[in-house]
């Protein structure tokens, strides 16, 4: 059985992405980060007194300044299209937000304000307002202002998984997400997946991309020897890699993760020192059936001459 076939034959948790639609529950403790207060505007001082006519005050800046945004480093989850599926993949990003961290992050996803730094990572949400988050028992209720549009059944499930995995990563005590639209229960978000239940994280082997590059990150500048690292859940813990520069494969080989699937485990490949320039690392899960690419992740980075 090929790695891809084996992985996709496993039953999902209640996320329902490669099986029936979901209905498990998800735990949530509402440790939402408190919002920041506005910055007071310092009023202009009085004009100096004098015998001559008083001069006009300088143009005043706006009466109120927007509150400063907080910043946080969080793992956001995006969709990545593979030859046989759409998978979920994480990317650590620095997010600016006002108010509560979790609500701010979920809003940036549903409203389409954030995209993957890696061009292969897609946010399946766009222009869906977030009215707010609330907690009912152990479930985080996500109240949306409209439904999701323009996605098929698999993509609808992955879009839901984007929110589930992002929210549970920010607050590990969250157990389940449920959805409402304009405060009312909803039977589906995009017409394919039953949304009347609760959504939990599925297994990593069934939900996440089988191969992932964590470093070098997309767009990163590397000084010195290149050490590539990532995570994988692949057959016999083995994957292939290529290093490409100016459209030419300059090096290639195979690597191994610490464990084989169903465990998603770390891997390291030492690529050594390279001449300055732009490179693309390609990591591939190879089908044991026909040698084709079952899943792929890439990262384009620059080697500095300094």
TrEMBL record:
Residue stretches making up the GerMN domain: 102-190
Start-end of Low complexity biased regions: 44-63
Species whose genome carries this gene: Microcella daejeonensis
Segments of this protein annotated with the region Disordered: 44-69
Protein name: GerMN domain-containing protein
Origin superkingdom: Bacteria
């Amino acid at each position: 059985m090929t790695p891809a076939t084996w992985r996709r034959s496993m039953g999902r948790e209640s996320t329902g992405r490669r099986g029936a639609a979901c209905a498990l529950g998800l735990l949530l403790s509402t440790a939402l980060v408190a919002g920041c207060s506005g910055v007071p505007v310092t009023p202009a001082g009085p004009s100096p007194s004098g015998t001559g006519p008083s001069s006009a005050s300088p143009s005043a800046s706006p009466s109120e300044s927007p509150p400063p945004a907080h910043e946080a480093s969080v793992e956001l989850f995006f969709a990545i299209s593979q030859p046989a599926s759409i998978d979920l993949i994480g990317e650590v990003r620095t997010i600016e937000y006002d108010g509560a961290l979790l609500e701010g992050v979920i809003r940036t996803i549903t409203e389409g304000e954030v995209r993957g730094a890696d061009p292969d990572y897609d946010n399946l949400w766009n222009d869906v307002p977030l009215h707010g988050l609330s907690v009912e028992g152990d479930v985080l209720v996500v109240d949306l202002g409209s439904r999701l549009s323009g996605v098929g059944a698999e993509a609808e499930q992955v879009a839901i998984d984007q929110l589930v995995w992002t929210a549970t990563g920010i607050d590990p005590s969250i157990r389940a997400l449920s959805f409402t639209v304009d405060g009312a229960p909803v039977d589906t978000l995009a017409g394919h997946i039953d949304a009347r239940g609760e959504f939990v994280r599925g297994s990593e082997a069934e939900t996440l991309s089988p191969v992932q590059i964590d470093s070098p990150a997309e767009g990163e500048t590397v000084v010195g020897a290149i050490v590539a690292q990532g995570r994988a859940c692949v057959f016999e813990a083995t994957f292939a890699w290529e290093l490409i520069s100016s459209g030419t494969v300059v090096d290639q080989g195979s690597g191994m993760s610490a464990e084989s699937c169903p465990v998603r485990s770390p891997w390291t490949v030492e690529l050594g020192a390279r001449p300055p320039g732009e490179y693309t690392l390609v990591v591939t899960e190879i089908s044991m059936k026909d040698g084709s690419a079952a899943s792929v992740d890439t990262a384009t980075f620059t080697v500095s001459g300094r």
